[in-house]
Amino acid sequence: MEILGRILDREIKFEVYDTSKNWIADFPKGNWCLVIIAEEENRNYFDEIIRKAIDRNVGYIHSVGKQHDLIHDLADEEIVIREVENLYLPKHVIMTTGDEDFENGIWFGTYVTHNEETEITQVVILDVSRNAREKTIELIKKFESGYLPED
Prior knowledge:
By secondary structure, this protein is an alpha/beta fold.
């Protein structure tokens, strides 16, 4: 996993989703936000990512890109299924949101995500589309310098 910077005392990390490796191995086990970048629909990937993030006590799931509504819905659905079937859930409520716009979505994921029940100290940006590394790095550097996206 690559460390991109620090925003609001949060370490910002980046990982490309790759089914050929153990992509979740270095993910935090508490006090973190997951930002999923996804332009193409792949429910199997999204389901796996959401399940593994919940198992690692994610505090916030935020999605960016064309699939943000689907990911948000799948995350909420997984949480409800786990509640109903009495399966593992963290002790805190998991927040879920999404934004189609890349700059606004990454800004929200790094700055605004908040969970009153568990402090967010790390943000992991997971690139499911596998083509957002460079623009994410550039954007995080701009944010660290005070840049705000236009709305």
